[in-house]
Endonuclease III
Amino acid sequence: MNAQKRYEIFSRLRDNNPTPTTELHWQTPFELLTAVLLSAQATDVGVNKATARLFPIANTPQGILDLGIDGLKDKIKTIGLYNSKADNLMKTCHLLLERHGGEVPDTREALEALPGVGRKTANVILNTAFGQPTMAVDTHIFRVANRTRIAPGKNVLEVEQKLMRHVPKDFLHDAHHWLILHGRYTCVARKPRCGSCVIEDLCEYKEKTEIG
């Protein structure tokens, strides 16, 4: 895929959704970090229901610690893997208070040093909370990048690196949100909705469907 085609793809995605953002509900970097930590193998809808119970009571590191592990588990027990997620969140809160004055750090190294925070989560925080041009490659982005041929790669890191290299700078800040939403609602896993896709004529997927 050439640079001109990539530019047109992201132009259309932007025109279709000028201000994309995460579907997780958050107000502060700590709320976003908490929501992302809870989102592994869970839907955003499910996470939002849990944080709607949690955040009015505890939405700071000290607040979570004051709630205690059992209190935290009670608020998030509707989410899969809630026991391990609660443990990681409690440990993260301790470290945020010990190392960062209770604030969420804005560097990859510091974020990835927190329990349960890997490269993808760090990229989400850096981009969405702090406005840095990062690419958080999840299953949706991996699929869309490979299927469309925008940035094909054998693993998430290869796709991330190619996207960072090939996405035009004008679109880099919002690109990962556009790609996630495109994969979640249009370029879905089993039968992509090519018939209603705004980039169908630019996409290089060979097995297009007429589904809208």
Observations:
- The mean pLDDT is 94.
